[in-house]
Description:
The structure is a single chain. This protein has 111 residues and is an all-alpha fold. It has two domains: 19-56, no CATH class; 59-110. 63% of the residues lie in helices and 0% in strands. The chain contains four helices and no strands. The chain has helices spanning 22-34, 39-49, 59-83, 90-110. Helix 1 (22-34) packs across helix 2. The mean pLDDT is 82.
Amino acid sequence: xGRPALQEEDKRIIQVxxxxxxxxxxxVCHYAEASAMTPxxxxxxxxxxxxxxxxxxxxxxxxxxxxxxxxxxxxxxxVRQVHAGxxxxxxxxxxxxxxxxxxxxxxCLLK
Length: 111
């Protein structure tokens, strides 16, 4: 199933070319990535609304969030092993403290 066809008035048929310096291009690409948009759509929205498009989640925070999620998955597996009796119960307090710290960090990132 293909993309729905656009009405004739909604088609973008005019092309405008601009030249940017390397630094300007890096800035536009950074903002566009943070806003989860293409650079062209980011420039278009900025030009027509006069405002910066909303930033979804900074790339650093997104990568940090994914890494913390992976750590949390591993911690949950370790806690499950403790509860199943496959690992010494002495580790349970450490693992639970690590889980709480990981959740606190995630909450700080998402606020």
